[in-house]
Specification:
59% of the residues lie in helices and 0% in strands. The chain is an all-alpha fold.
């Protein structure tokens, strides 16, 4: 306890805190986003393919049409690639926002991350 005649000591102002690195919550949200993107993109691709099939032939596809269609298989594979691209973009943004330094400037196109002076790579 300080007396009334002593000046009050104020603690130094702390810099704005920033979340650094991954944590369990970010990992769980990323995993859920990945699973959701894969499921929703495949459902959307199947619905789109079914609508295309109906417009082409005037009837809904049969079980045989679904199991032997090469165009449906290609559509589902492409939708999976789209879902993975969404997940990678999410991860890129998450790393950019939680990195203590500018992530894009640290990345060297050879795949190594700079840790010291120019020309030295950590890998």
């Amino acid at each position: 306890m300080t007396s009334l005649t002593e000046p009050a000591v104020t603690p130094p102002a702390s810099p704005v805190s920033r979340v650094v690195g991954w944590n369990a919550g970010a990992a769980m949200v990323t995993w859920l986003l990945s699973i959701s993107a894969i499921l929703l993109s495949s459902v959307g691709a199947q619905l789109g393919w079914t609508a295309w099939f109906y417009l082409q032939r005037g009837a809904l596809p049969t079980q045989a049409d679904l199991t032997t269609s090469h165009s449906l298989t290609l559509t589902l594979v492409l939708s999976t690639f789209a879902a993975h691209a969404i997940t990678l973009l999410w991860c890129w943004q998450l790393i950019r926002r939680t990195s203590p330094t500018e992530f894009a400037r640290r990345w060297v196109w050879t795949g190594a991350v700079r840790s010291g002076p120019a020309g030295t790579d950590s890998l």
